[in-house]
Amino acid sequence: MIERVLVAMDGSDLSERALRYALDGHPDAEITVLHVVGGASPMMGQATGIALSEGGDEGIQEAAEPVFERARGIAAEYDAAIETVVEAGRPARQIIDHAEGFDVVVLGTHSGGLADRLFVGNVAKTVFQRSPVPVTVVR
């Protein structure tokens, strides 16, 4: 039985579909939404700028809040409560690191356009290949 579900959200429509899929498919499970600030660039993209600025932790939380607000709104449609977690760094690595404590990971197939896939890489593919728990990829 699935008791704990980790849903990776990046603010894209596909990540919102992933949350809806998790809420539909696992209505009695504890759902945690993970948002990773920053991309998988050699210079760590947005995460580096936030970490080096004043109030790094506050900046990271602030960057995640729009995604979490949308996630809470979707959960409210299902009359469900969700937990939220924000991390900075490489999305695939953070998702894989967090997966250990869950029964399944649910995420969208990709986040953005071609540029995102070229520069960030295929997060879904990496998570699917390396996750210690089953992964559901929603499109």
In short:
With 139 residues, this protein is an alpha/beta fold. The chain is built from 6 helices and 5 strands. α2 (45-52) packs across α3.
Which descriptors apply to this entry?
48% helix, 139 residues, alpha/beta, Rossmann fold
Integer tally of domains: 1
Query: Structural class given helices, strands, pairing?
Result: alpha/beta
Biggest sheet, in brief? 5 strands, parallel
Distance between the termini: 24 Å
Q: Report the helical percentage.
A: 40-55%
Q: How do the SSEs run, as a string of H and E? A: EHEHHEHEHHE
Radius of gyration: 14 Å
Q: Superfamily at the CATH H level?
A: HUPs
CATH topology name: Rossmann fold
Low-confidence stretches: 40-45
CATH class: Alpha Beta
Strand order of the largest sheet: 3-2-1-4-5
- Fraction in beta strands: 15-25%
The total strand number stands at 5
Please give the count of helices: 6
Structure in words:
- Residues 40-45 have low confidence and may be disordered.
- Helices cover 48% and strands 21% of the residues.
- The chain contains six helices and five strands, in the order βαβααβαβααβ.
- The chain has a single domain (4-138), classed as HUPs (Rossmann fold, 3-Layer(aba) Sandwich).
- With 139 residues, it is an alpha/beta fold.
- The two termini are 24 Å apart.
- The protein has helices at 13-25, 45-52, 56-77, 91-99, 114-120, 123-130; strands at 4-8, 30-37, 82-88, 104-108, 135-138.
- Residues 1-139 form the UspA domain.
- It comes from Halorubrum californiense DSM 19288.
- This is UspA domain protein.
